[in-house]
Task: structure prediction
Amino acid sequence: MTILLIEDEPLVARTLEKMVRKLEPGADIAGPLASVADTCAYLQTHPSPDLIVSDIQLADGVSFDIFQQVDMACPVIFTTAYDEYAIRAFKLNSIDYLLKPIDPEELQKAFAKFHRWQPDGQNFKQQFREFLADLSNPGQGTTRKYKRRFTAHYLRQIVPVAQEKVACFCRDEVIYLHTTEGQKLITDYNTLDELEELTDPAVFFRANRQYLVNLEAIASYQPHYSGKLLLTLHKPNTAEIIISKEKSPVFRDWFEGSV
Result:
C-alpha cells in the first residue's frame, strides 16, 4: 500500500509521517509534498496511491486545486486548522478530515475507516467530481435538511429537546446535551462529529473537540492575549469553552453572521 502525504509545514509533516509509519508500518510513504505544483507533478508521473493524507492550505494554494487538475481515484483524509462548513461535504463523499493539531487517536480512527471501506474507483471518482462541483457552485446542490429536535434521557424516559432549547453538546466519555434551562442530559449520540453533521451550521459551531455550541446560547466571548477566544454561555455555567487561535477568525465570522 502506498500513502501520499501532502503537508507544507516541515515540523507538522515530520510528525505526521511518524504517526502514519507507526499506524501503517508496512506501507510505502510518498512525500511529504508541500505544494499544489509538486503534488500535481507527482500524480501525473506516478501510479495513483492507495490513500492520500492532505493538508488543505498549501504553500501555493489549496489542495482542492490538485484534485481539479489531476484525475484520481483514491480516498483522501484531509487535515486543516480551519473547521469551515464546506468540510461537511467530505463526509458525504466518504472522505474523512482531521483538525490540527492532529490527534493520534483521531488519525487511527480515520485509518480504521479507510480499511473498513473498500471503494469502487469509478464511483469514488464520480463522488469526488460532484464534491468539487459543489465547492465551485455553492448553493446549487440539494438543500440540506438538519435536525430540529434531539432526543436525550431524562429519568427513565427518552425526551425530545427542540433545537432552540439546546445550549450545547459536550463530550465527556459520553455525549451530554445541556439545555438552556440548565439541565444536563445523556444522549445516545456516539460522537460530536456525528452531531455536527446533523446540526445546522448557521446555528451550531464546533468550538473544539469537546463542545458544539448553539449561537443563541452564547452570552459573550472574550479575546485572550494568546489569540484564543473564551466563550461564556447564558446557561449552563460550564467550564471555560476555548476556541483556538486558528479557529478564532472562523468563529468571529460565524458569530457576526458573515458565513
Q: What stands out?
A: The longest strand covers residues 166-172. The two ends are 39 Å apart (CA to CA).
